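Q: I'm teaching a short session on how sequence maps to structure, and I want students to see two examples side by side rather than one. Could you give me a first protein with its sequence written out and its structure tokens following it? Keep the formatting plain so it prints cleanly on a handout.
A: Of course. Example one:
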Amino acid sequence: MKNCTIFFAIVGLLLAGCSGTTVVLVPDATGKVGKVSVTTKAGQQVLSQSGASTFAGKADKIPTQVKVLDSTKIQNMFGTVLANEPAPPLHYSIYFQFGSAELLPESKPLLIKIFKSIEERKSCDTSIIGHSDRVGDNNTNKGISLARAESVANILKSIGLAGNCLDVRYYGENDPVVATADEVAEPKNRRVEIEVR
């Protein structure tokens, strides 16, 4: 009889081919605890507090009653997994002058910090996503958001980041951080978001 015990930080699911699955809910990197529903054909258990666990042995049986494990028990069961858990992504926002790909002066020093964080992680998985506000038509704004993303990518490459480690995308005015009416200038929407994984 094969028993697969797995650890889930936020999400739980049942694995095919295992005689059962243990699901344990733990906080994410920020300390927030979500909620997980472990469901079989016979019923479900909902985990909603840190350390809550259940075992789903067979599809035709309801998962076991929820019990809360202390941190020592979780560490004993899943210490190796926890030690190898990847770091959560880092998120940065770089801001721009109105209607252009010219960085705001206060955004320039942040690019060095971003480059250093990429180096420290030894990451080759960075997304650069350009955005605009809603002044002008969407086609023009898509072009501006692309120019902003490419500008940031070029600066990071000039510092020493390999181009094949970058995923450059742009959304124009379609993904505002601050919702506005059309033709409203919003400085927080004139940005490039950088995610380092």
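Q: Perfect. Now a second example for contrast.
A: Example two:
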Amino acid sequence: MNLSANYMGISLKNPLVASASPLTYTLDGVRRLAASGVGAIVMHSLFEEELVSDAEHQARLLEAGSESFAESLSYFPDTLAPKASKHYLGLLERAVNAVEVPVIASLNGATPGGWTTHARDMENAGATAIELNIHMIPVGPGIDGRGVEDLHVEILQQVKAVVSVPIAIKLSPYFSSVGEMASRLDKAGADGIVLFSRFMHPRIDPESLEVIPSVGLSDPAESRLPQTWVALLYGRLEATIVAAGGVEQADDVVSYILAGADAVMTASALLRHGPGYAENLLDGLARWMARKGFDALDQVRGMLAVQSSSDETTWERTQYVDALRAANANLQGPW
């Protein structure tokens, strides 16, 4: 059975990618993921807030020292890499050397500053590719939507200009036109489009009268939105398409590939069941292919995608109406 896949020009032994999660905070976790058989590993994100905090702290130290000693700058190394960055790059380099599967670095931020420097450092540390997770929700009423879109393109172009490894954009589902945004990023040089990033919304606790940070694992129902967009974008982009969210069973992996995904990411299932659960997902995929008479993923990929000759709006509207009709029929009863 040939499960090999291609992600941004990177050859993978299979389409299952372990996405960013707490499992990649340690070298042992990275090794366990690799041993489970995944095709690639995305490291946890290096956050802009960590870098800004470290930089501000170092700036205060330098300012205080320079006021006291004329030659105080000689006490500091030439390269003042923030602590968070040094730790991340060290772990990334050890991970790349410890496992044989591709290791993809991840940057999570909201502004253009600093992306290029840290992307270059990640490439130098051995990252096979870099995933840009641009976490920006235009929550203020005065924030222009087109400006947010332009910012994504600007960040991508800046990073592409200074590194040679493939660059993926992990896209938000909250654009007014996801298809047009994906197309703009594709034309701007994105090597991969990941659909979609998950936002960890806080909850309001009526007893403590506090806003509580809340992180929940995904469930299979969450796969429907990215699955729809994978099917709509298949064959319309030069960039490879990666599905993310809601993978719990092998059938979820199969469905994404039928929709047209080049690779499928999972984190929640591996956190819920342990890294070794990847073997279950891959075994289930292989068994399904054998049962259906397929020998390679290329025979499966995009079978249920929206054909390029189809009208996407009509297709989506038809699915919407059919779903409502089916729901109404199922809910009819003696009442």
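Q: What should students look for in example two?
A: Point them to this: The mean pLDDT is 85. Also worth mentioning: The longest helix spans residues 48-68.
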